[in-house]
Design a protein that fits this description.
heterodimer; A: alpha/beta; four-stranded antiparallel sheet; 10 strands; B: alpha+beta; 14 helices
Chain lengths: ~230, ~400
């Protein structure tokens, strides 16, 4: 199995007296095709971990490798390129652009890869098909239900065929039933081979995932994969 | 360690390349952002529109009026010179020598020379009116080539000819006819000059360069001598020269007209007055252009304001775009593009509006509409420069936003 994500002794600290450690020596490996839940209460450092895995932030020390690329030392420009091709984000607030149709919102996922518009739209259409929204191409976000909006956001995360999909509280703004459907979609996508990391504070939600990593006070508390291995 | 190990793997040699975005895509992103906030877009572009429109209109109007003046000057000819008995020291109401026109006609490059003798005889509508109520109308005796020299024409009736200039016949200037209440010519209408009856044979169109003559009742020189006993010493002589020799003729005119007292002779070139008017218009043009620039500046401030607001409102969008792979440069370019398009929109509308205003005003003035290329190019260029300046700070701010901060909402 190839490692898609490798964190080695990742520390994120903020200057102060004493310095604040948001992450205090986190090491984690995620292999291709895994569906992992990262679970922790608020303030546990899971958001910081998400930002660092998503290359939106750099670690103070330690090494982050995604899809074979060491991203922890890249320049801002190269990190942007890494995000455009290696990572797909799904947010709690969906973050769709209100003035754009579902199709164009998904196509925006390819905007910074230099692909032309026809190709972007074609691939966006394929991605929307995968999430079961091929009948909602020309709808604006305001015309979609919460669950449909999150599906559009997931299609946008899929469209650049990323090495890993990062979902930050993906059901946080949805009712339980819709939330379950979204988790079901993640399971389906995972079954088709996608590597997915779901960050959540919801232990019940994490229970349904094949592997759970618990985080507290900036340290990994437990990792179900390690338990299995042991 | 792991970094080295990874680098040896073939998969790692796949180059991530660079984030890139097409210019056209950037433009469509910017225009869709503007489209979703239509009212705000229109209002913020309006400031630039007003600034550019006023500048284009000012340039257009000044150019149109200048063109009109130039056409007038061209029509009249810049080769007309006027010689008057000046108010030299102790000269009193001086006149030129009687044979002045003959003397001037001897100068080589002369096309036409014509003298006008001012008569002191009062001009009256009829014997019933108060003898002092001349309404500023004066009697003059003129040579027959006056009309040809001054490029003027008859509005009603006919000009004097060899026969009528010997008899009590009069042609009225446009203003003189109006003041005397004479509206028809050639139907036996008579007026009194120096108590003698003169028949009105014609009424003239206004003289473009000799307003004095508009207030005159013009009779022939022989008639002036025979009926009014006038001395035929011209007070004004009009000369047209071969165009290339205007300055040469001008320098010798005074001495030729009055060899004994050249200092008493005043030589002027009436087209200079129009040139001066054209120059005076230029002074106003600069003033209004300055006002237009102020309006444009205010428009720019408006755009900067709207852009800063947009950056604050669209933090989440900025964060999302960074997460999708946009570099700082892409974010900066997107906002800069939006600001440029806003200002460009204002600029295009402004040029159109300014041109329209120029066309309407010029048409009411009977001018030809002239919109100088510099106004169009400068208007659009100015708008874009303002847009770039106004957008720079908000764009830099948007670009400087860290992705994690932008996504935290």
């Amino acid at each position: 199995m190839t490692a898609v994500l490798e964190l080695t002794d990742v520390v994120k600290s903020y200057a102060g007296h004493p310095p604040v450690y948001a992450l205090d020596g986190v090491s984690l490996t995620v292999n291709e095709g895994e569906l992992v839940g990262i679970v922790g209460p608020s303030g546990s450092g899971k958001s910081t971990l998400l930002h660092i895995i998503g290359t939106l932030d750099r670690p103070s020390s330690g090494v982050v490798t995604i899809g074979g690329h060491v991203v922890s030392t890249m320049s801002d420009r190269r990190l942007s390129a890494a995000r455009s091709s290696l990572i797909g984000f799904v947010f709690q607030q969906f973050h769709l652009i209100p003035s754009m149709t579902a199709l164009d919102n998904v196509a925006t996922g390819l905007l910074y890869t230099g692909v032309d518009l026809t190709e972007r739209r074609f691939r966006a259409f394929e991605a929307l098909q995968r999430v079961g929204l091929s009948h909602r191409l020309t709808h604006l976000p305001s015309e979609l239900s919460g669950g449909e909006r999150q599906r559009v956001a997931i299609a946008r995360a899929l469209v650049n065929k990323p090495a890993i999909i990062l979902a930050d509280e993906p059901t946080g703004n949805l009712d339980t039933r819709t939330g379950e459907q979204i988790m079901g979609l993640f399971h389906d996508l995972n079954a088709q081979g996608a590597t997915i990391l779901v960050i959540t504070h919801d232990r019940d939600l994490a229970e349904g995932l094949p592997r759970q990593v618990h985080i507290r006070d900036g340290r990994l508390e437990s990792d179900s994969a390690a338990v299995v291995a042991a | 360690m792991s970094a080295l190990a990874v680098r040896d793997e073939p998969a790692a040699t796949v180059d991530l390349g660079r984030s890139k975005v097409r210019l056209g895509d950037l433009a469509s992103v910017a225009s869709s952002a503007m489209g979703s906030r239509r009212m705000r877009t229109l209002l913020s572009a309006l400031g630039v529109t007003i600034g550019i429109a006023s500048m284009v209109a000012v340039l257009g109007l000044s150019e149109s009026s200048r063109a009109d003046l130039q056409t007038q000057i061209g029509k009249l000819g810049t080769n007309l010179l006027t010689i008057q008995a000046g108010s030299g020291f102790g000269a009193g109401d001086a006149t030129l020598p009687v044979d002045v026109t003959t003397a001037i006609a001897r100068i080589g490059p002369i096309e036409n020379v014509t003298g006008v003798v001012t008569l002191s005889d009062p001009v009256l509508r009829n014997s019933e009116v108060n003898a002092d109520a001349t309404g500023g109308v004066q009697a003059v005796a003129a040579d027959l080539n006056l009309l040809a020299t001054l490029n003027s024409s008859v509005a009603k009736g006919v000009w004097l000819n060899a026969a009528t200039s010997d008899y009590p016949a009069v042609v009225l200037g446009a203003t003189a006819a109006e003041r005397l209440g004479v509206t028809t010519a050639g139907d036996g209408q008579q007026i009194l000059i120096g108590g003698k009856r003169f028949t009105v044979v014609g009424i003239l169109n206004p003289f473009p360069l000799a307003a004095d003559l508009d207030r005159s009742a013009i009779i022939g020189t022989k008639a002036a001598a025979d009926y009014l006993g006038a001395t035929l010493a011209p007070s004004t002589v009009y000369v047209t020269t071969v165009p290339a020799f205007v300055q040469d003729v001008r320098t010798v005119l005074a001495a030729t007209a009055n060899p004994e007292h050249p200092e008493e002779v005043e030589v002027t070139r009436p087209s200079d007055a129009l040139e001066a008017q054209s120059a005076a218009n230029n002074a106003f043009t600069s003033l209004f252009l300055g006002l237009g620039a102020v309006a444009l500046l205010v428009g720019g401030v408006g755009i900067a304001n709207v852009m800063i607001m947009g950056v604050v409102e669209r933090r989440a969008e900025i964060g999302l775009r960074r997460a999708l792979g946009a570099t700082r440069g892409h974010i900066r370019d997107q906002f800069l593009m939006e600001s440029l398009m806003l200002a460009g929109l204002g600029g295009v509308a402004g040029v159109a509006l300014g041109a329209l205003a120029t066309f309407i005003y010029a048409t009411t003035q009977g001018w030809q509409t002239v919109i100088p290329a510099i106004a169009i190019v400068g208007g659009l260029g100015g708008a874009l420069v303002i847009g770039a300046i106004a957008g720079l700070y908000p764009a830099m701010r948007a670009a400087a936003l860290s992705p994690t901060e932008a996504l935290r909402s």
